[in-house]
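Notes, p. 3: input format for complexes.
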Amino acid sequence: MHRAFVRRFLVGCSSLRGSLNYIRKAMTVPRPVVITGPSGAGKSTLLKILMEEYKDVFGFSVSHTTRKPRHGEEDGKDYHFTTKEEMQKGIDQGEFIEHAVFSGNMYGTSKAAVQTVLAENKICILDVDMQGVLSIKKTNLNPLYISIQPPSLDVLEKRLRDRNTESEESLQKRLAAARQDLEISKEPGLFDVVIINVDVRPAYNKLRDVLQVEIQKVQSSSNS
Ligand code: 5GP
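Output follows (224 residues plus guanosine-5'-monophosphate):
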């Protein structure tokens, strides 16, 4: 009886050790970050500042898209610009973690894009639309979910018009998607944090504060 007790105790200890190791690992391994928000909410601007300030900490998962490049966008840096046929082929071959159709164009996160960032021991940032968020929720990626939102739809429309990157048709599609996404984003627990981007600086400060725990995980592991 004594021996059986000792055996049970040791088995208990090893599974406890396993659990403790798991908890310790979860506490030190930085989580990926999913950032979403309506087109024109300011995600790209905030991410650009973040990447500049913490270029050794964060890496951007470069998505695929079938939309045409905008002025100044680089293939392989901003997006992998591709065709519908090529992208569908990749999807059929299981190369994508998630994909969606947004405003008439295909967008998707490939497994390779995320792997590239993880291989550099950086925190992977995924900029996806709301469909992407809902798809990633079904995976075991376990990211932080952050929603960047405009103060109002009127402000969003003005920003999109001032940006002057969209045709009237595309702009209307983006506004319709924004209206729908802002409704969905009210669902309790969908996001870890919602940041209302009234001005860039305070919005950026909040983003940086939210990510501080993950930043420290990377910085302390690279110092050790
Ligand atoms: P844009 O055409 O303005 O660059 O992006 C349009 C929308 O597509 C944005 O909301 C952006 O977050 C989203 N998006 C960009 N890449 C991906 C992706 O890989 N997957 C999904 N689901 N959405 C994406």
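The chain has a mean pLDDT of 90.
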